[in-house]
Amino acid sequence: MKKTLSVLVKMSLFLSASSLAIPLDAAQSKHPKHHKSSVSASIPAEGRKVFIFNPRSLNWSIYGANGKLVRSGKAVGGKGYCPDVKRACRTPVGAYAIYHKEGPHFISSKYPLPRGGASMPWAMFFYKGFAIHGSNEMPGHHASHGCIRVYPNDARWMSGTLPVGTKVVVKSY
């Protein structure tokens, strides 16, 4: 009986661990608003990969063509107001698709004002000039001019995983 219980517990732990999706920068995802429980294990299958940004929980998730969660992690979006441009900077809510990708050394031609120069490694553009890109500035609150910031290692992985045409969903703030 004791041996059977031990085997069942080990099998349960193995099966549970094999279905987890852990962000590449898990050690950095300690902000209290970033809860893995806010990420669904699956969504309705769409036949293509889907990237979802949830501004309320400050996280991103990627689902495979079959609708199963592949990976999730911390993200920050556009802040409510940007004093330098004197307007709201929230990431536009809606459904889009990645239409252009850049490499590890890409920099903004616009921000910071007036000449640009902000590092945007592995930028994946999904709407006008808005992109998902790597950043070491992940303060635990929305801080960008509208882009979705993720950790650089996550952005590098995403760039190799998400092809042009990948659906991007930005949920409501």
* Oligomeric status: single chain
**CATH class, please?**
Mainly Beta
What is the chain-wise order of helices and strands? HEEEEEEEEHE
By DSSP (H or I, 4+ residues per run), the number of helices equals 2
CATH topology category name: L,D-transpeptidase catalytic domain-like
What is the tally of beta strands?
9
For the record, the CATH architecture stands as Beta Barrel
Sequence stretches where pLDDT stays below 50 over 5 or more residues: 1-35
Average of pLDDT: 85
Tell me roughly what share of residues is in helical segments. Answer: 10-25%
State the CATH superfamily name.
Answer: L,D-transpeptidase catalytic domain-like
Name the shape in a single word. globular
Total individual domains: 1
Descriptive overview:
16% of the residues lie in helices and 22% in strands. It is of the alpha+beta class and 173 residues long. The strands form 2 sheets. The chain has a 5-stranded mixed beta sheet with strand order 3-2-1-9-4, with no helix packed on it. β1 and β2 form a beta hairpin. It starts with a helix and ends with a strand.
